[in-house]
Amino acid sequence: MFQRIASDKQSSRGIPVGLSSCLAGQQVRYNGGHTQSQLCLKTLSGYFEFNTFCPEVAAGFGTPRPTMRLIGDPNDPRLAFSDGDYEQDLSPQLEAGYSEKLKTLSHLDGYILMKNSPSCGLERIKVYQKNGYAHTQKGQGLFAAALRERYPLMPLEEEGRLHDPALRENFVLRVYTHHNFRTEVLNDPCYHKLIQFHSSYKYVLMAHSQAVYKQLGRYLADAHALPLEQVLKTYFETLMAALAAPATRRGHANVMLHLLGYLKNTVAGEARQSIVDIIDRYRQAKIPMITPLTLLRHYIDQSGSGYVKAQRYWEPYPQDLGLANKL
Questions:
Q1: Are 147 and 81 in contact (CB under 8 A)?
Q2: Which pLDDT tens digit goes with each residue over 83-95?
Q3: Own/partner pairs, 131-139, CB within 8 angstroms, 24+ separation
Q4: Tell me, what's the pLDDT at 2?
Q5: Environment class of 50 (CB within 10 Å of its CB; exposed 0-12, middle 13-18, buried 19+)
Q6: What sign results for the dihedral spanned by CA atoms 325, 4, 149, 237?
Q7: Per-residue pLDDT at 13 exceeds 80
Q8: How much is the average pLDDT of 110-138?
Q9: Per-residue three-class SS string for 253-312
Q10: N or C: fewer beta carbons within 10 Å in the chain?
């Protein structure tokens, strides 16, 4: 079962993102029900074109079906019916259900998975011993593990974790970054496009890691001496790894102070100090990020250079998502 869900707002122009079918409201759960996600269908569907898939149904387990769980070695678990023989192994059947589909997902820029599922759970999945008790070590769903192995740079997240504002913002940021790199650089790769991309993402990267920001700058300075394919691989891997965790308030405050430096010759000192004070209030978690960001962008739009206006930091994803309102 593999279907596409596109909102009326963006139709097929939305960024392609995978979604566990049960989260889309499809009745594919073991009990014949679903776990429809309002966050996905009411909010994110305005920007993502969801490609839904249920590996258990695709494998022919049927709906409804007996509950299943992971058993054996947490590092290499097997799938079994919860009330079945401990020696049984349903893993080959599940793998047969998703193996061909897995090969066709290179166009996706992210994937939202169902938590606690022995097939789709991304982490913290119980793996049971022969005595019926769970191992202390947790595992991950078999489809989720295969997805991560085949597409290690694709942003993956469980729907439940997306209700945390910082994790949701980080996932959306990574989805848009993955999409932009894929469409702006990888679709017709050359050194010039890579440098342009990096130039626009400098302050996004700085907010997450100053060390990686400097590292990639040095790396690209000599990139023309290296094979393009190698450079693209190294750059993309390093970038996505740096963005894997949410940026801190301190990181964002540091970036906004750097951006304020572009106004030292055009904005009066008193006004700049007022902006500094507001940035510091954000750093102390007294106000949301949108407040200093909007004020700073107002002045940048008036007197900033073309280079600083073009920074993706101002809008790494559509403002209508309102993510900066909650940071």
A1: no
A2: 988 888 999 999 9
A3: 135/74, 137/74, 137/75, 138/74, 139/70, 139/74, 139/75, 139/77
A4: 39
A5: buried
A6: negative
A7: no
A8: 96
A9: HHHHHHHHHHHCCCCCHHHHHHHHHHHHHHHCCCCCCHHHHHHHHHHHHHHCCHHHHCCH
A10: N
